[in-house]
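Quick one before lunch.
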Amino acid sequence: MTTRRMACILCPSGCELDVRTSGEPTADSVVVEGNLCPRGEEYALEELLNPRRTLTTTVLVRGGVGTQTSVKTAAPVPRESLAAVRAALLGTTIDAPVAIGDRVAEDVAGTGVDVVATRAIPRRSDPVDVRLRNR
Amino acid sequence: MSDRRETDVVVIGGGPAGLSAAAAAAEAGAKVVLVDRNRQLGGILNQCIHDGFGLQAFGEVLTGPEFAARVAARALEAGIEVHTDTMVTDLTSSRELVCTTSGERYPLRAEAVVLAMGCRERTRGMLRIPGTRPAGVYTAGAAQWLTNMADVRVGRRVFILGSGDVGLIMARRLVWEGAEVAGVAELLPYPSGLPRNVSQCLEEYDIPLYLAHSVTCIHGRDRVEAVTVTRFDERRLPIAGTEFEVACDTLLLSVGLIPENELSRNADVVLDPMTGGAVVNERYMTSVDGIFSCGNVLHIHDLADRAAEEGDRAGRCAARYALGPSTSRREELRIDAGEGIRYVVPQRAERSAEELLVSLRISEPADRCTAVVTAGDRVIAEESLRHGHPSTMVQMRLRSRGGIDADRLEVRMR
Ligand SMILES: Cc1cc2nc3c(=O)[nH]c(=O)nc-3n(C[C@H](O)[C@H](O)[C@H](O)COP(=O)(O)OP(=O)(O)OC[C@H]3O[C@@H](n4cnc5c(N)ncnc54)[C@H](O)[C@@H]3O)c2cc1C
Ligand code: SF4
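Model of the iron/sulfur cluster complex:
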C-alpha cells in the first residue's frame, strides 16, 4: 500500500488528494481522500495511469521588443514525450509581432498538440500603445 | 512637465496586485494613475512562464504572462492611465509622489495611494556564506529572468540553496533546458515551497532534496566549481563530520523573499516585523490615512490569484476613501498571531467591520489541525486544515453582524 499526495487541478478548489494504491492502479483499487467531488477520483486515476504535463519554455523572436517569448503546449502532453517536445522546439524562431495564443508549432513531436505563444511581443518598430503613454 | 498633477488614486506597481487595485478603483469611479518601473505591465509574472496560475481567479490554468495579460486588460478597459518605464522615487505621508523616468522627474499627488511594489529576493550577502566570490552565483529569480527573458543559459550543473518556490520552479526549468540539477539543500526540516512544487519540480525529475542541510562553503576561483553541503541540527548548528562536496558550476539561491518597502518607510508607514510589510486594517489601509497596501509588498503570497484578489479589495477601499467624505479613523481592534501562527493580515480592524478576510501562515507543518479565531474565550471562527503547511497561505472569513464586540482578536492553532 502506497500513499501519494497530489493536488487536483480540475477546478479552483484545488483539493489536496491522498491517493492510496496497492498493486496496479485501477478504478476499484485506488482509494482517494480529500476530494470535494467525484472528478477528483478521475483525476487521480489519470495521474497514476497516464500522467500528462504542460511544457512551458521560450522561443526566439525576430524584430521584437526583447529577444524571446514564452510558449506552452496548448494541452498537456504525455510526460514521457516532454523531452521530445522540448527538442523539437530548439532553434525555433518566429517573427514579431506575437500575440498570446499565436501558434508556434503544430502537432509537436507527434503528440497531436500545438504549441502556442503565452506573451505578446510588439514589433520593435511599432509605436508604443498610446494608453501606456498618455502622460 | 513640472506642474503638479492631482488625481484620485495612484497605484505604485503594475503586477497582479497593483493592476487589480487600479481596475477596481477605476470601476468604482475613481481617476487612477498606475506607475511601474518596467516597460511591460504584469510585474514578476512576465518571467514566471510556467503554468499553475489563474485557477482561483479565472477557473482555468494559465501561465504567468497570460494571467498578467488578463489582469492588465481589465485595468486598461476600466480606463486607467499608465506610466510605464517610470519609478516612484519618493512618497510622503501626505501622499505626494516623485516619479522618475529616463532623467525626467515629475510630481504627483493623490487622495489615496495603493502600495503594490511586490518583493525582492534575499541575496548571498544576507546569508554570509564563506568561500570565494566566483561567478556563477545567482538568486533564483535572477536566473529565471536570464533564462526566460534574456535567453541566457545560467549553467550546466546547478546546485540550489533553499527550497523556496522560485528555486523549485527553476530546478525543473533548467532540467528542461538540458542542465543537470545536482540537488537542493534546505536548512529547515521541511521544504519552504508549496508541496505541489516539490512533487512537480523535484520528485518527478529525481532531484535530491536535502532537508536540514545548507551550503557552508563555495569553491572555485573564477567560476563556481563546487559547494560544501553540511547537515544542521534542530538548533540550526552545523553537525561536524557531515560535510560533503557537490561539483557544480552554478549555485542558485532561493532563500526567501522580502517585501519592497523603502517607499513605505519614507512615508512613515508602520511595518510589521513578522511580515516585513505594512500593518493594515480590514480595508488594507496602513497606519497612514489614505495609504493602502496589497500583494507581495504587504505579505508574501504563494498564489498570484490571491495577490490579485487582495489588490481588488484594496483598490475598492482606496477609491471609496478618495471619493468619499473625509472621515477620521474609527476605533480599531487588534488582531494578533497567537500560538502556532507566524503572522496574520490584517493586524487591525474597525470595530464596526461586519466582514473580515484574515490571511495567515502557520508556523510548523501539521496534518489535520485547526486554526481558530478567538475573542477572549469565545471562538468566533475556525478552519480545519488537512495538510497544514507554512508555505500555504490560509484564509478565513469572519462575519459578525453589527461589528465585533472585543478589543482584541487572537488567531491560534488548537
Ligand atoms: C518565481 C516565482 C514563481 C511563482 N510561481 C507561482 C505559481 O506557480 N502560481 C501562483 O499563483 N503564484 C506564483 N508566484 C507568486 C506570484 O507571482 C506573486 O504572488 C505575485 O506576482 C505578486 O504580485 P504583486 O503584484 O504583489 O507583485 P509583483 O508581481 O512583483 O509586481 C510589483 C511591481 O511593482 C513594480 N515596482 C516596485 N517598486 C516600484 C517603484 N518604486 N516604482 C514603480 N514600480 C515599482 C515592479 O517593477 C513590479 O512590476 C510565483 C512568484 C515567483 C517570484
Ligand atoms: S476534487 Fe473536485 S472539487 Fe476538488 S479540485 Fe478536483 S474537481 Fe475541484
